[in-house]
């Protein structure tokens, strides 16, 4: 992936948008402080961020008599960025279905992506399973899968590699697809083969036990899988991504969907692109889990893992501990960031 270069004109635009954002932020925080000073708020309790509505956040109450109900909330000034999936402390206000968020509870995981200034911004929190979807068509690229997995490793969220469109497996592609899945299974990644249009295997029960996101390249069947598993949700995601109901602010922010059978889905166009974002050299290396035991074992400290004598990575390939394709992929990704 190449970093986007920002033209002068674009950068003025970004500065203006940023200034507007700051102005809006101080306004919404002033509102939260006014509500807090007013003193007419209900008891502090736990809630979860479900979506962003422009300056307000939609919070679902997690405890007590309000559990399951949703409240449009302002946020205190001193809070860090809040994202969908965050668990928070909030207080209901006197106006119906509104409230104030006063604290962010610790995150179990967070997905981040770079903003136009290359600063990493959180986009969703507390996800515990990434469903990385591939399919016979579009033809899967092992290197693209590597990149998604690197991004997963950087988040500490468990990935599951799912080959969708099993009905399109034929004599012509069976061996290569089987080998592809096996090569990632050999690294320790869990895999599934299923079909959004047919047998979805244990996907429903997996989703029911987790907070999941679906990622993968365009056309692999993410929408179809969501549609098969959660028909109501698929429709809502569509409305959000076209911005038809909730306004333009929601087009890039993630939304939380409770799954009727348990578990939840967080989805947005931005999240679906997860994994093709910028990564630095340390993250790249950390993302190749099978290389970890060999880090620091090369003879030369600045080893490029090419043809140097005493390269532990090359030796690991010769010894059958590391796949040659994966080492080549790692080196290509490192050289890509070096030339940007
Ligand atoms: N044969 C077959 N086709 C499928 C299956 N799942 C999805 N498709 C088809 O693949 C195409 C793309 O599916 P989508 O669900 O739109 O893919 P997506 O990953 O959501 O694509 P983006 O929205 O572009 O990210 C559609 O024509 C689907 O009908 C499947 O299991 N079998
Ligand atoms: Zn080396």
UniProtKB/TrEMBL annotation:
GO terms for biological process: ribosomal small subunit biogenesis. Residues 125-272 form the EngC GTPase domain. The keyword Acetylation does not apply. GTP binds at residues 164-167, 216-224. The keyword DNA repair does not apply. InterPro entries: G_CP_dom (IPR030378), NA-bd_OB-fold (IPR012340), P-loop_NTPase (IPR027417), Ribosome_biogen_GTPase_RsgA (IPR004881), RsgA_GTPase_dom (IPR010914). One of several proteins that assist in the late maturation steps of the functional core of the 30S ribosomal subunit. Helps release RbfA from mature subunits. May play a role in the assembly of ribosomal proteins into the subunit. Circularly permuted GTPase that catalyzes slow GTP hydrolysis, GTPase activity is stimulated by the 30S ribosomal subunit. Monomer. Associates with 30S ribosomal subunit, binds 16S rRNA. This is Small ribosomal subunit biogenesis GTPase RsgA. It comes from Paraperlucidibaca baekdonensis.
């Amino acid at each position: 992936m190449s970093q986007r270069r920002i033209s002068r004109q674009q950068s003025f635009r970004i500065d203006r948008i940023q200034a507007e954002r700051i102005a809006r932020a101080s306004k919404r925080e002033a509102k939260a402080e006014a509500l807090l000073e007013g003193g007419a708020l209900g008891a502090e309790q736990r809630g979860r961020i479900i979506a962003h509505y422009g300056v307000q956040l939609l919070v679902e109450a997690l405890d007590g008599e309000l559990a399951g109900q949703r409240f449009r909330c302002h946020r205190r000034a001193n809070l860090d960025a809040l994202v969908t999936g965050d668990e928070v402390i909030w207080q209901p206000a006197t106006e119906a279905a509104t409230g104030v968020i006063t604290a962010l509870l610790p995150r179990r995981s967070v997905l981040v992506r770079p903003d136009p200034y290359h600063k990493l911004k959180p986009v969703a929190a507390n996800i515990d399973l990434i469903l990385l979807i591939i399919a016979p068509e579009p033809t899967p690229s092992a290197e693209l899968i590597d990149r998604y997995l690197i991004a997963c490793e950087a988040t500490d969220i468990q990935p599951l590699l799912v080959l969708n469109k099993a009905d399109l497996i034929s004599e012509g592609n069976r061996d290569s697809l089987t080998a592809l899945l096996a090569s990632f299974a050999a690294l320790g990644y869990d895999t599934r083969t299923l079909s959004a249009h047919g047998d979805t295997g244990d996907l429903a029960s997996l989703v029911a036990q987790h907070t999941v996101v679906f990622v993968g390249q365009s056309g692999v069947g993410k929408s179809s899988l969501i549609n098969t598993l959660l028909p109501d949700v698929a429709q809502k995601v569509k409305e959000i991504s076209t911005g038809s109901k909730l306004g333009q602010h929601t087009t890039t922010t993630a939304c939380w969907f409770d799954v009727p059978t348990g578990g939840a889905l967080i989805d947005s166009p931005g999240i679906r692109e997860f994994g093709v974002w910028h990564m630095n050299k340390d993250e790249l290396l950390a993302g190749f889990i099978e290389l970890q035991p060999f880090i620091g074992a090369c003879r030369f400290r600045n080893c490029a893992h090419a043809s140097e004598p005493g390269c532990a990575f090359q030796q690991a390939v010769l010894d059958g501990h590391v796949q040659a394709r994966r080492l080549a992929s790692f080196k290509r990704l490192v050289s890509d960031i070096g030339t940007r």
